[in-house]
Amino acid sequence: MPDRSDKFDEVRRAWIAAHQGWSTIQRRRAEQLGRKVRARQRAMAAAVPDPHDDTVLPQLWLRTRHSPASQVEAILVAAVAVTAP
To answer: The whole model's pTM is what?
Structure first.
């Protein structure tokens, strides 16, 4: 199986994490990239990153809507889904 790694995954993860703002969607993207980077590091190194850092937010429709940011995201996604089918 070919290696599907991207040498810029860590740079992309750091940029997304630094510019995520209030959006939990961007936080999820950064977490997914971080998870992929740490899995690659574990496969190549004897000193492994902590696997407890590999938690990822659930997808938007599976999240609870307690925070104001998640409520705004849900409303925006629903509005886009209705206006641009």
So the answer is: 0.49
